[in-house]
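dude i think i finally got it to work??
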Amino acid sequence: MHGPASPGWLLVALCAATGAYCLLRMRSTVEEQRRAAGGEALMGFGMAVMAVPAAAFTPPVWAWPAYAAVFGAAALRALWAARTDAHHLHHLVGTSAMVYMAAAMAASPVGTHAHGGGSASGVPLLTGVLLLYFTGYVLLSGVRLLPAPGTGTAGPAGPVSGAGASAGPAVAWGDRPELARACRLSMGIGMLAMLLTM
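look at this
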């Protein structure tokens, strides 16, 4: 995970900002939103810690097994929650990817911060599968953020006004679905960046 310093710090900032926003989403009055935000905050902060450039900080040997245990527990929780909500399957893949990357870091020689244990034959199979999954997830999440034609958002003529424009209660900024999607897109991009360095 620990590549060049500048992109590494950008990835740390992206993941930490995403984790912080997810913490704010945990204050939502919508129970489902709070539950999802907690797991996403853990992912955001966990990815931020994992992305810290090696030149700045080298974790102790015991850190990676502990990291794998924390995300292994989160994966089990996501597996349990997936029984009733399919969205938790994505959390299961994400937390499992974190366990995989932590295991790769633990298996690497001290100070090298694993790059996946790849051989001369190329990218390890599991890394390739995870790269394909997160590439698809990022593309799909990006498409979902695009405004649908005719939704009444700003267009060539400007914002839509009229009876339908202000109907319904105002949604708190922490409960806005497009912000939650942007948060998930950011974490998907971060996961892709981390997997590419393996």
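The first helix runs from residue 5 to 25.
im so relieved honestly
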